[in-house]
Amino acid sequence: MGKKQNHNTLPPKLALRFLSWYCTERRLEEIEGDLEELFYRDINTLGERRAKLRFWINVIRCFKPYAFKRKVRPIKDFLSMDLYINYLITSVRRMKRERSYSVIAISALTLGLLSFMLIATYLINEYKFDTFYPKKDRIYRVVQIEEHPGGVEHMAMTSIHLAEAIRNEIPGVAEAATVWPGVDGWVEANGKTFYESDYILASENFFQIFDQQFLMGSDKDPLKTPMSAVITESLAIKYFGTIDIIGEIMNVDRYGLYTITAVIKDLPGYTHMPFDMVLKPYFNRFFENVHPVFIPWFNSWEGHPCATMVLVDEDKPMEELEATLQTILPKYKGNEWEVRPYYLQNIAQVHLNETPVRFNVARVPQGDKSKIYTLTVIAVFLLVIAIINYTNLSSARMTNKLKEIGVRRCVGARRWEIFRQVMTESLLITFMSGVLALVLFFLALPHFGFLVEKELTINMQVLINLSLVIVPVLVLTGLLSGAYPAFMEMKASEQLVTWLSVRKNDHKGFRNVLVTAQFMLAMIMIVLTMIINHQNQFVNQKELGFSKETTLVMEINGGGVRQNYDHLKAALLAHPAISEVSGLSTMVGGFREPSEIDYITDGGDPEHPFVGSFYGFDEFSLSVLDLDLVAGRDFSGNPIADSTSFLINESLAKNVYPDRRMEEIIGETIRINEPDELEGTIIGIVKDFHFLSLHEKISPLVIGYITNPISGIDDIAMKFDPYYDYLELYTYIDDLHKKYEPTAQMTLNLLDDLLQVRYRADRSYQRIFMTGSFIVMFIALLGIVGLSAYSAQQRSKEFGIRKVMGASILQILSLQAGSIIKLIIIGELIAVPVILWWGRSWLENFSYKISISPYLFVFGAILLVIIGIVSVNLVTYRIARLNPANTLRDE
Amino acid sequence: MKGKNLGEFEEIVLLTVGVLYDNAYSVAICDELQNQTGRSVNISAVHSALYRLESKGYLDSRLGEASATRGGKRKRKFTITSLGKKALDETMDIRLKLRNQIPDIAFNFGFDN
């Protein structure tokens, strides 16, 4: 030592950096000094290479608790609580001082969180379908696969005898119950009459499969004796005002007198089988009450309108069960019919399933996956945009805080304490927004239910799941929105300059990126909403090819009307408001499917038939629906001649006889092979009309006379005078209906209404998108309002000087707006490909669709720019109009 | 306070600090240990012993002068506190007391069998 050191060689830089990374400031100098001293000594004795190596080793060996940064906090423990309280106090003070900023930040976060909560509730309601049954893992529904020319169809309709057969034949099945939907009708109880639709008929072991909470009566075989009923709490209150009603008698329309044996708690709304009353009829005498005609059908193994629910034993392999299940039909039904395979579907899979299954006991529609995806994306959009907002605003305000941070550092705050302080503030604001959102959540829930067209249930199960989602999201939102500002402030606090004076680095670049992202999202939402609006308008206004405003449709629900059709028709025509009446097999318009047929032309190959749809019309149908013929003639009204005549549509003519003029096709023969054999001559060609929904293309169609064997009369269409008193007309028709069908409820609708229902999902999308884009736009707006208010304040002196130098207010405004508009336009440009991709994939669903017009983009872009300019100018104007004498005098 | 008593290494470090008196800083201690006991000691072990002794109150420290040999960094110099002296004395006493109580016969290493 004491020698002149060779300072050309320095210790390895990386090792030094590592040391200063882990080592506390307090110890860094001495440890570094020690190590360097050893290093220089080693250079002389061992040489450079080994000295460096030993330096490295020493640095690594010093990586011990005594050198760590967090180690030394001598007074932390008793101060930290006070410190946090101080953080909260200063946060609250700041929020009060910068009130408009706080309002903007909190309301944007609240909106984002509120939307997220609502959507999460909807998603939970969808995903938790039928999961509240304790035995849900063992409950299965029997589904039958049916193949026909149109494709494969899954049906949950089974024979009423299947449950008993399954119980007797299949080992590994604990219970099997038949569930039959109740038909709308009146219920007489406690001397009053009520109209009910949500009730089911079930076999006696229903409650052994579907456990319920019993409030009154025993949970042991409440349905053991036939003609007993179990009702829910709310229904009991509605009928009797109390739940202590065991032994009371109800008279149920069509089904007779029932004794109440138990009262259960209400079911949550998220079930595919909602009910408020379960009846146990004499299944064997069930139909005798209704109509003797049905007895043979009832005794058969045909599909009855009922579901079979199965409770399987635990650990029983499903393949084995399903294999045994296939043996039942051949055994009982014999080989008179083709045997259709069964499979078992877990109850939790009933609702959200890619495969559409026809028939649901309570007509609860299957879940809509694409709606779920859309809503999830919107929820994430909203949350992201709100987080961006907060990040933006608080990083913009950072300059205001630097003095405070400087003082904190001077007094002894550590870097991480600055980080923690900013984080505390953002968590506080997120938490406040969360509480506010929660309050609004309960207020908004019913309206939101309308938006998604679903009544949402809030119970313990949903709330628990919701909080499992919301609490992490809240924390994450707080952390994410605080992360950037906290990090930047921590960084800034490292530099001595900031401790003493305000440094002018306000991270503009990062904020600009965020503003751009916000407006990109807003643009996506707005243009998509417009695309959806346009498409729906297009669908609504599209000429369907038949008249819908003046047509009434009556469904035929019973044999009475069918047998007495001629009498009924005469009576209907006697009414002054009804000008024409026609019987059809199925009403056109796509809300009910027509029959599918296989057919061949004269000399065609029976092995390769054409596929088409089939309707039965009578000689009045064309005129009731205002359908035009392009060639040939209508049915004559002579049943014998008409029964061998067909009308076809233009699509069929073009498909099957591509080279022939319309007139030449008249007189050709068509033979239908499936589902029944029927041959006829083409007597006329109907102008194309949209007999299916607008989601589908117009396909080939054969129209036979109504007496055909393929599909008989099922709907009655009437042309009526829309200016006539509709209520009077309705009562008149209802009375007529009662005369022929005393027990069934009449279903009479305006064709227009029925068609509206068909496009309900599309309109629901429209509403969801409209609301979503409104909120996204609003939050984005709040963001730029906050930002430009802040920046205008920062630049108030600059504005003052500019004004002194002769700038007009307008010039100052355009200065401010210009920078924002640039960002908006960039965001809009980025949005374009996303919109195109998304819009196109949505429009794929329609056969008749609009093309995405560039005007929509232009309109959306201009809308956002205008809104941007207006809001920026509003807040800037307040500052810009100030007298320079005042702004410049400040300080 | 937990761990009032001195470990063996701690005791030696504490003694060395006393020996070096005004020049007791980690590198010097390291060297002295090597010279006196012949065992090679890593600087990090000395650091941790010193800091532990300081936190126990047996050592006091101050930052000393900077020198070019250390790349211009100051060294931390340690001195024994009165508490440190007391602890050293106690340990020494216990050792001596115990040593003196060993009967001579215990050192009779069995030449007779």
Structural notes for this entry:
The complex is a heterodimer of chains A (891) and B (113). Chain A is an alpha+beta fold. In chain A, 51% of the residues lie in helices and 16% in strands. Chain A has four domains: 13-67, no CATH class; 136-358, no CATH class; 369-538 and 761-889, no CATH class; 551-755, no CATH class. In chain A, strands 1, 2, 3, 4, 5, 6, 7, 8, 9, 10, 11, 12, 13 and 14 form a 14-stranded mixed β-sheet that branches. Chain A has a six-stranded mixed beta barrel with strand order 17-18-23-20-22-21. In chain A, helix 4 (76-97) packs across helix 14 (415-452) and helix 28 packs antiparallel against helix 29 (854-880). Chain A is globular and about 115 Å long. Chain B is α+β, with helices and mostly antiparallel strands. Chain B has a single domain, classed as Winged helix-like DNA-binding domain superfamily/Winged helix DNA-binding domain (Arc Repressor Mutant, subunit A). Chain B has helices at 8-20, 26-37, 43-56, 82-101, and strands spanning 59-66, 74-80. In chain B, strands 1-2 form a two-stranded antiparallel ribbon. In chain B, a hairpin with a 7-residue loop joins strand 1 and strand 2 (74-80). Chain B starts with 7 loop residues before the first helix and ends in a 12-residue tail after the last helix. The A-B interface holds A 1, 5, 7, 11, 27, 29-38, 40-41, 58, 61-62, 64-67 and B 25-27, 42-44, 47-48, 51-52, 63, 66, 68-71, 73-76. Chain B: Residues 24-89 form the Transcription regulator PadR N-terminal domain.
